């Protein structure tokens, strides 16, 4: 990752209008690299990093969390932890993973420390979405080197937890039951052709590439450990060629020896040098979470979470998985008659999200021509009579249209939003439903300005609901 810069990335794609049929990348309001999925209480969570596009490096200062009941509409829970949450951290809020144990949530992160090492830390919470607090006030793993990135944690059936991590070297340690300490020694997993498909060649980047091309693969970073049918799987970012692949090895034990199995996701039009992901089962389906640089204007330093569904082969091996724009299908419908957060989004353009103590996360930076798409909304048989939205406007305000199935589909409601007294002075406004609506639809919230220039901020949007007929 570190040696190779975006000059190697030559992919360019036509992205205009990609949202109409796209589901990948699954979040468009922020960059969301290094996705780490977690299933808890029949809900999918994904913990991500936060790229700041426009820099020439992985300039990252915080982490984010999102959740979904249906795999297509993702609710933004904001950024519960950042570099500031760890008094000993100064930079590089890189890849992380959150796991649950006995009702507590442990978010393992890596950062550059104030004394210029890379170290693994852990924040703890009673809820998957926080608030999280640094569990130790100091690093969990620090060895005075730059090796300590990309923690992954797995709890085995015998309740022993394992922490793996490492860039170009792969380490593990057995965690104590408290999940925030360890007693045994840190073990380095030997790199071999049998274990990871190749050997890391310590030389300057071009020589590394040439020499590595003689191997099938090599362990680079981003380990992801899990178990399926008594088999342990170690997915990781591997490499041959000019960008990272997702590759995997298996073992009969959580500590190896590991046997190289091949690549899951190879060079494809990704627009990102790195790839990093997690695999998880949810309601009987298997999903690969990974990242690409495919949001408009993005690239290696503006990476976003994408998801593909896949099926294991009969022998437990993982097939080659293609990156798609279409992503995954909804596995549930959304109830429009409950309070729905505006930041529950399948696809959006020309808006972002912000958070404050009073309102939590809300949709902000709304501009004319922007919209939010929410998929698979089930209006039932009787239909809706009224639509309400909680909105705020510090200046001009604008118009919120509700349309069905496509951006210019049937308009079923419209709310004219006046100045409400401040950008966080939310008011609930209501509109009658103009035509009968029943069954399952995609709903589009379309944003329009009233006689103002296109670049101006219109209003903020916190939540919405329909009233049943
Ligand atoms: O996001 C920063 C770094 O890039 C991660 O720690 C690596 O896994 C790679 O994705």
Automatic annotation (TrEMBL):
<feature type="domain" description="CBM6">
    <location>
        <begin position="338"/>
        <end position="467"/>
    </location>
</feature>
<dbReference type="Pfam" id="PF04616">
    <property type="entry name" value="Glyco_hydro_43"/>
</dbReference>
<dbReference type="GO" id="GO:0016787">
    <property type="term" value="F:hydrolase activity"/>
</dbReference>
<dbReference type="InterPro" id="IPR006710">
    <property type="entry name" value="Glyco_hydro_43"/>
</dbReference>
<dbReference type="InterPro" id="IPR005084">
    <property type="entry name" value="CBM6"/>
</dbReference>
<keyword id="KW-0378">Hydrolase</keyword>
<dbReference type="Pfam" id="PF03422">
    <property type="entry name" value="CBM_6"/>
</dbReference>
<dbReference type="InterPro" id="IPR023296">
    <property type="entry name" value="Glyco_hydro_beta-prop_sf"/>
</dbReference>
<keyword id="KW-0119">Carbohydrate metabolism</keyword>
<dbReference type="InterPro" id="IPR006584">
    <property type="entry name" value="Cellulose-bd_IV"/>
</dbReference>
<dbReference type="InterPro" id="IPR008979">
    <property type="entry name" value="Galactose-bd-like_sf"/>
</dbReference>
<keyword id="KW-0858">Xylan degradation</keyword>
<protein>
    <submittedName>
        <fullName>Glycoside hydrolase family 43 protein</fullName>
    </submittedName>
</protein>
<keyword id="KW-0326">Glycosidase</keyword>
<feature type="signal peptide">
    <location>
        <begin position="1"/>
        <end position="22"/>
    </location>
</feature>
<keyword id="KW-0732">Signal</keyword>
<keyword id="KW-0624">Polysaccharide degradation</keyword>
<dbReference type="InterPro" id="IPR052176">
    <property type="entry name" value="Glycosyl_Hydrlase_43_Enz"/>
</dbReference>
<comment type="similarity">
    <text>Belongs to the glycosyl hydrolase 43 family.</text>
</comment>
